[in-house]
Amino acid sequence: MVRRVLLYLVAFLSLAAPASLAAQASNQTLQVAPLPRDGEVLVSFKLEEPLTDEIRAAIQSGLTVKFNYKVDLLRSSAAWFDRKIASATVTATVKYDTLTRRYHVSRAVDGRMEFAETTDKEETAWSTLTRDFARLSLFRGASLEPNAEYYVKVSANASPKNSTFVWPWRGDDAVGFAKFTFIR
Q1: Are the beta carbons of 140 and 20 closer than 8 angstroms?
Q2: Where are the beta strands (DSSP E) in the chain?
Q3: Contacts of 156 (CB under 8 A, 6+ apart)
Q4: Which of 67, 87, 54 is nearest to 133 (CA)?
């Protein structure tokens, strides 16, 4: 009896997972675009989130605002859970210096600093946090099988937490994904 219930549960979950992914893709605010090329997967993504007055006030107060993006490369599976091939973390930060009235922006990939610069434009600072993620080489050397279906899932978390980013049903603030077939 217990075995049969578990079997039904597994069957239900395997059928419900693709439907829930399709529903998420239709209205996601985190746009993802993978590009498989020369044995690696280049990933572009952007968070379509406007700069609100609350976030602006937090940045202008001198707090360090950080967006963490967890990027997973997964292989789709029809019968069981999807298999994680590789994972990377991209962290974008902005800190406003109230004395010089300049924004210090930086980006790190898996803890390694990619760049750091200073700007006096608020739009440039916000873009560094949410939109300037084009063709990042995150999965170099990942072993991909030819003609197999994969997808890239990006989960975003912001700190400090803000009421505009809180979604009670999920541990992440925003999630986006995109499928692709690896052709060699």
Answers
A1: no
A2: 30-37, 40-47, 64-75, 83-97, 102-109, 112-119, 133-140, 148-159, 174-182
A3: 30, 47, 67, 68, 69, 172, 173, 174, 175
A4: 67
State which amino acid sits at residue 113: M
Evaluate whether 67 touches 107 at the Cβ level (below 8 Å): no
Query: Would you mind telling me the total number of residues written for the chain in this entry?
Result: 184
19-64 tens-digit pLDDT = 333 334 445 589 999 998 877 889 999 998 888 898 899 999 999 9
Helices and strands of the chain, counted as H and E runs: 3, 9
Each residue of 105-135: pLDDT tens digit?
999 999 999 999 999 999 999 999 999 899 9
Burial (CB < 10 A; 0-12, 13-18, 19+), residue 1, is exposed
Q: What is the dihedral of CA 170, 171, 172, 173, to 10 degrees?
A: 70
Find residue 113's DSSP bridge partners.
108
> Model pTM greater than 0.85?
no
